[in-house]
């Protein structure tokens, strides 16, 4: 400012109004309006009975005596199927990879990219939502073990991409499939839509992730088994 122009003080009313305006703007940006599903609205209003597995359970810290025998048996079956990435032998894979056609390699690359990206979403939902919400210790055991298994799956899918793909740019493209491959991005956004417990009820989200595993993943697994049947 020039010497002839004395500094003008801002009035307290202006400062207060400006601050309030910024606070309101910040709240609007940070807290987008949530659109609850029909069933979530009924759950919040009390029209629906609370989900039994989510009802506060004072005995949730103690596993025995087992109350949910079906869930416990599913946990024991998962436990019995445990394996690690180190058990896989990829020594001969590169030779087989080189014998595939370009179309076959393109196909497998995109299937692996989907697996590598989507397992992270499944795991985040398990760790941040399902295992945190349920109050039944048997279900917590299952979810905890499923998280460990999903970690191993994610490691293996990423390891396969790392083994097969030598070009660093292409490898990065596949590992970031949620952002770089439209069909994977679309599936990922659909799954992420069903991760928010503020928007959807637990049964709805459970059904959505059953679809992720039973449709998205199973469809890709079928394609891999088809290649295996052909001796590839």
Automatic annotation (TrEMBL):
Question: Which sequence ranges form a coiled-coil region, renumbered to this chain?
Answer: none
Q: Does the keyword Phosphoprotein apply?
A: no
The processes (GO biological process) annotated in the record are: deoxyribonucleotide biosynthetic process
Keyword presence, Membrane: yes
The membrane-spanning stretches of this chain are: 206-227
**Which UniProt keywords are listed?**
Membrane, Transmembrane, Transmembrane helix
Q: Which domain of life is it from?
A: Eukaryota
Q: Which PROSITE patterns match?
A: RIBORED_SMALL
Q: Which molecular-function annotations from GO does this UniProt entry contain?
A: oxidoreductase activity
Please report which protein family the annotation says this sequence is part of: Belongs to the ribonucleoside diphosphate reductase small chain family.
Alphabetized PANTHER family for the sequence: RIBONUCLEOSIDE-DIPHOSPHATE REDUCTASE SMALL CHAIN, RIBONUCLEOSIDE-DIPHOSPHATE REDUCTASE SUBUNIT M2
User: What's the protein here called?
Assistant: Uncharacterized protein
Q: Which organism is it from?
A: Phytophthora fragariae
């Amino acid at each position: 400012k020039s010497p002839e122009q004395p500094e003008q003080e801002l009035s307290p009313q202006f400062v207060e109004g400006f601050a309030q305006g910024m606070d309101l703007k910040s709240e609007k940006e940070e807290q987008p309006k949530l659109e609850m599903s029909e069933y979530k609205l009924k759950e919040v209003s009390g029209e629906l009975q609370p989900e039994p597995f989510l009802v506060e359970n004072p005995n949730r810290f103690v596993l025995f005596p087992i109350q949910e025998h079906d869930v416990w048996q599913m946990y024991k079956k998962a436990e019995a199927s445990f394996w690690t990435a180190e058990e896989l032998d990829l020594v001969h894979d590169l030779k087989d990879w080189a014998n595939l056609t370009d179309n076959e390699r393109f196909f497998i690359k995109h299937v692996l990219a989907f697996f590598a990206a989507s397992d992270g979403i499944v795991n985040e939902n398990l760790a941040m939502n399902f295992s945190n919400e349920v109050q039944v210790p048997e279900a917590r055991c299952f979810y905890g073990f499923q998280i460990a298994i999903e970690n191993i799956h994610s490691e293996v899918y990423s390891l396969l991409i790392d083994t097969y793909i030598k070009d660093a740019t292409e490898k990065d493209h596949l590992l970031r499939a949620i952002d770089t491959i439209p069909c994977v991005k679309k599936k990922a956004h659909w799954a992420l839509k069903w991760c928010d417990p503020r928007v959807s009820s637990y049964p709805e989200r459970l059904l959505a992730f059953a679809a992720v595993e039973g449709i998205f993943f199973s469809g890709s697994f079928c394609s891999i088994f088809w290649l295996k049947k052909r001796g590839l």
